[in-house]
Design goal:
single chain, mainly alpha, de novo design (two linked rop proteins)
Amino acid sequence: MSIIAIIIIVAIVIVLFLIGTYNSLIRLRNQVKNAWQQIDVQLKRRHDLIPNLVNSVKGYMDFEKSTLESVIQARAAAIGARNISDTIQKEDALTAAVSKLFAVAENYPDLKSNTTVMELMEELRTTENQIAFARQFYNDITTKYNTKLEIFPINLFASALNFQTFPLFEITDARERETPTVDLSLKK
């Protein structure tokens, strides 16, 4: 085999590697974007449900105006998010505000007997669960994509083509990291 044939074979292998790498990065990046869009759909649903829930509980929760206001403010901030990182941060704040609203609502027996409020709360809980599953999928595919961007020699090729990592959803509130205390004793 001549030196020219070897050089041509090596060049073909390198070109095939680069094409395969580029295509796999594009495929993963599109999966990350799709996963983000799935989260976005659920966030939109949550943003639409919150005003209905707040309006439904307003009359019952006269003494909890600060809780309602924090939910409304957190929702407005989340809707106004500018990018994925900003959205992640503001949606975490909204999740905390909604959780507090749920906790406070448990203290109002009249609220628990109102079927409209209970249906809205159940829809919102279901949406929160769907958001959690969508976030998990997003984090899984984003981790795979980000890892691929960092592996040598792909990192050289990816940085030359300006592929960027995506942020992950992470627990930012220390209270969410705490292990809940469960008392299963039958003491009265």
